[in-house]
C-alpha cells in the first residue's frame, strides 16, 4: 500500500508528528500583573487581535486577521502569590503544515521575559 501512495504522490515527504510550537514561561509577577502583561504584549508587540479574553480561567486567544492564519493561545496559571506560569502556544488550521517554531511565540516570550 505504501508503494501505491508514494507512486501516486499522496505521501507527504518530511511530515512530522509532534507538539505545536510553544514556550512555557515562569514570571516573578502575581497573577493579575502577569495576565495584564501578556494581554498587552499580544496587542502591542505582535499586533494581534484578541478573540478570547477570560482572566478568570487564565485563557487568551488571539489571531492575526488573515483567513487560515496562525493563532496564539496563552494559558496563565498561578504558581504562588508572587509567581505565575504562562504557556504560549501557536496553532494552525487543519491541513496546514505545522512549522517546528513560531516567530510569534518567540517574540511574545521575549516580550514577557524581557529578553
If you had to describe this structure to a student in words, what would you say it looks like?
The protein has 115 residues and is α+β, with helices and mostly antiparallel strands. It is 28% helix and 31% strand. The chain contains 3 helices and 5 strands; from the N terminus they run αβαββββα. The protein has a 5-stranded antiparallel β-sheet, covered by helices on one side. β3 (59-63) and β4 form a beta hairpin. The chain starts with a helix and ends with a helix.
What would a concise description of this structure say?
The protein has helices at residues 2-8, 31-44, 103-113, and strands spanning 22-27, 49-54, 59-63, 71-80, 83-91.
What is the mean predicted local confidence, pLDDT?
A: 87
Low-confidence stretches are none
CATH topology: Alpha-D-Glucose-1,6-Bisphosphate, Chain A, domain 4
The helix/strand series, from N terminus to C terminus, equals: HEHEEEEH
Radius of gyration: 17 Å
The CATH architecture assignment turns out to be 2-Layer Sandwich
Strand content: 25-35%
Gap between N and C termini: 50 Å
Secondary structure category = alpha+beta
Q: Name the overall outline.
A: elongated
- CATH homologous superfamily assignment: START domain
Amino acid at each position: 500500500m505504501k508503494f501505491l501512495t508514494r507512486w501516486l504522490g499522496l505521501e507527504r515527504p518530511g511530515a512530522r508528528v509532534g507538539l505545536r510550537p510553544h514556550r512555557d514561561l515562569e514570571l516573578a509577577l502575581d497573577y493579575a500583573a502577569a495576565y495584564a502583561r501578556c494581554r498587552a504584549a499580544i496587542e502591542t508587540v505582535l499586533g494581534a487581535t484578541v478573540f478570547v479574553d477570560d482572566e478568570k480561567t487564565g485563557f487568551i486567544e488571539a489571531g492575526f486577521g488573515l483567513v487560515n492564519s496562525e493563532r496564539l493561545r496563552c494559558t496563565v496559571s498561578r504558581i504562588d502569590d508572587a509567581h505565575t506560569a504562562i504557556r504560549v502556544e501557536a496553532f494552525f488550521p487543519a491541513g496546514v503544515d505545522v512549522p517546528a517554531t513560531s516567530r510569534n511565540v518567540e517574540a511574545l516570550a521575549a516580550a514577557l521575559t524581557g529578553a
